Amino acid sequence: MPIQRRAFIAAMGSGAAAGLAGCLGDDSDSDGDGPEISGETLTLTTTTSTEDTGLLNELNAPFEDRYGVTVDAVAQGTGAALKTARDGDSDVVMVHARSLEDEFIEDSYGVNRRDLMFNDFVIVGSPDDPASIAGSEDVNEALNAIAESESTFISRGDNSGTHTKEQALWDDAGRDSDTLGEWYTDIGGGMGDALNRANELGAYTLSDRGTYLSMQGNTDLEIHVQGPVEGGPESLMNPYGIVAVNPAVHDHVNYDLAMAYIGYITGPDGQDIIKNYTVDGEQLFFPEALSEAPNFQQYVPEGWDGGDQ
Amino acid sequence: MPFESSIPFLLEFPFEWTYIRSIIRVSLYVSLVAVSLSTICSLPVALLVGFAEFRGKRLLTSIINTGMGFPSVVVGLVVLFAVSNQGPLGSLDLVFTPEAMIMSQFILAFPVITGVSLAAVSGVEQTVRDAAYAMGGTRLDVALVTIKEARYGIATAVLAGFGRAISEVGSVLIVGGNIAGSDGTSKTRTITTAIQLEARQGRYRTAMILGAILVVLVLLVNAIVVRLGSDDGGYR
User: Fold this and answer.
1) Residues with Cβ < 8 Å from A200, sequence gap 6 or more?
2) Which of B18, B73, B85 would best serve as a mutation to test chain A binding (most A beta carbons within 10 A)?
């Protein structure tokens, strides 16, 4: 395994410390024993969903004020965000595709992954619902109904977290998303693009609830299959994680600032902002970092066995 | 839109003026710096190629003309590779900065300004240059006389370069990252990338307003350049 063990453990330790500092919260600017970060710039690569919903600004403004730093947020798809981080062009990534995050960490580019928040995916479509999937509680059945009726389905096709999820769902339904047919339309665009396109074409698409809600006023699309937030199946869960870029691989990244950001965003302040952020009275994201029973597996790839290096 | 409904429309203007001002500022800063640098580099090239007779002149001219239509996203990609931390200029930390955007706009505007200026310079009568030489002018004097004669064409060249730079979206999105701070000030967000963002979110009205602002800006810059170009009251 390419991860240098001591650096990894040290990074995990300081991550836990920064997380703890975030938890203890209020006196973070009163003492001088932390690394000096004021005046510096954090480059955050993230997904379009966090920017398009407006959450990112709400989270970043108090952080910038408190520490006197700047956060440069570059919104890309999950795949592109992780690639930018692999190239050392960002300091921290906030994404939602656990399998890609795990790969990123296993390849030693990321350290200190933490669960951040979740929302869920929903299958939306035009009110006519040509495949009659409305109210379905079984994702496989719904996708198969869309496939059998050959109703137009919009795929992001951009290697984003949502696209990755959608491909996994087609797999689970026993269909290969590469050979679905002409009704399966790959647009290579962001979530908003996909929703607009689905609206124009009267098509179905997989959306995260947050982006769908924030655009609800601009489309006629309706939710046909609910995710777990509204009692739908667990397979539509959409968990977000945040990962610092490993300073042992890219020594120029601003690791201290990245960890301060992770500490803040997974601490009570950041989690409160996430909890209280609403669009038209609807909560878009659900905080997940503060748990009574911490899940230590979140720091490392799923199924990772650190025993024998 | 009927007149009576336009007042509430303006009142519920869908964005902050500080935000608008800062993206306009970034757009203008990046494009104007890039076009100025391109002009400084283009004019000597246009004069040299325009006056000199050498083997391969036609080839060089057609290479410049091809560059005028070079795909901007490719330029964006190449600049991204250059300025990324893995690239040759990685140590300068230019990725996702206005400077990286200036680099890509420079590369886009340079062939346009060179190509159009070259045509303008080539159109200046040989007799004008001969006269300037005959009066004892240095090479610099001759160049200045030629630029003065060709100023309308050169102004057109600069405007064409500016138009390409400010209305370009692909490369600035790739190398700039469309960054705006949480306080609503833009770092690398330009009018075009803001339009792209608004359209992505389905806020077509905001996108249209930004589009109108962009058109007005381009018209304004055109008017200013035309005004500057007509210091003797008109064109020949």
Assistant:
1) none
2) B85
Q: Quick check: helix, strand or coil at residue B150?
A: coil
Interface test with A, best of B16, B26, B94, B96 (most A CBs within 10 A): B96
In a domain, B8, yes or no: no
* Cβ-based contacts of A195 with chain B (< 8 Å): 202
The answer to whether the Cβ–Cβ distance between A215 and B177 falls below 8 Å is no
- Interchain CB contact of B179 with A (< 8 Å): yes
Alpha helices in chain B (DSSP H): 6-11, 17-51, 57-67, 72-83, 98-122, 126-134, 139-149, 151-166, 170-176, 191-200, 204-229
Note down the domain range covering B191: 16-235
- Contact call for B179 and A72, based on CB within 8 A: yes
Residue B201 is assigned to a structural domain of this protein: yes
Q: What was the ipTM of the complex prediction? A: 0.75
- Which CATH number covers residue B153? 1.10.3720.10
Q: Is A60 on the interface with B (CB under 8 A)?
A: yes
Contact with chain A for residue B202, Cβ under 8 A:
yes
For tokens 């399998």, name the residue.
A99
- Under-50 pLDDT residues of chain B: 1-11, 233-236
- Express each pLDDT in A101-125 by its tens digit: 999 999 999 999 999 999 999 999 9
In chain A, which residues have pLDDT < 50? 1-3, 21-32, 307-309
* Domains of chain A, earliest start first: 5-118+240-299 (3.40.190.10), 120-236 (3.40.190.10)
